[in-house]
Amino acid sequence: MRKSLLVVLMVLFALAAVGCGGRNTAFGVVDMQRIESESQVFKDVKEDVMKKAATAQEEVMKEMEGKPQDEAQKIMENKSAEMQMIQSEAQNKLKASFEAATNKVAADKKLGAILVKDAVPQGGIDVTDDVLKNMQ
């Protein structure tokens, strides 16, 4: 009895490990260089960050004018921290847009995963165009 229970458990674990639950082994690949160069979301976020950086630089120059070294250093540190927050928010926005697009494409095309094309030596379905269309 104990031996048959052990065999049944081993078979169940093996089936779970192999994925007999109907999982699809097809996977997509996405060209990140194209996403960065062609995605309107990516272009808009990059432009926004560049504008905010230029504005921050102008503000720093004005605020530092005529200030002693220690005050100028504090101003610079504050603006640097502000720019890091802006960049972090931009990265989060891009990540959310990309993840939503890849999740939708994976579901629509019934793909088990979407991987970065450069990390896959061969195989996979190129879904770059679909991801570009779905990024918002």
Detailed description of the structure:
The chain is mainly α and 136 residues long. 71% of the residues lie in helices and 7% in strands. It contains 5 helices and 3 strands. The protein has a 3-stranded parallel beta sheet with strand order 2-1-3. Helix 3 runs antiparallel to helix 4. The N terminus is likely disordered.
- The percent range for strand residues is 5-15%
The number of strands is 3
List the total number of helices. Answer: 5
The 3D shape can be described as elongated
GO cellular component, one term: cytosol
Protein name: OmpH family outer membrane protein
Signal peptide: 1-16
Keywords: Signal
Q: Which descriptors would you attach to this protein?
A:
136 residues, mainly alpha, 3-stranded parallel β-sheet, 5 helices, 71% helix
Characterize this entry briefly.
By secondary structure, the protein is mainly α.
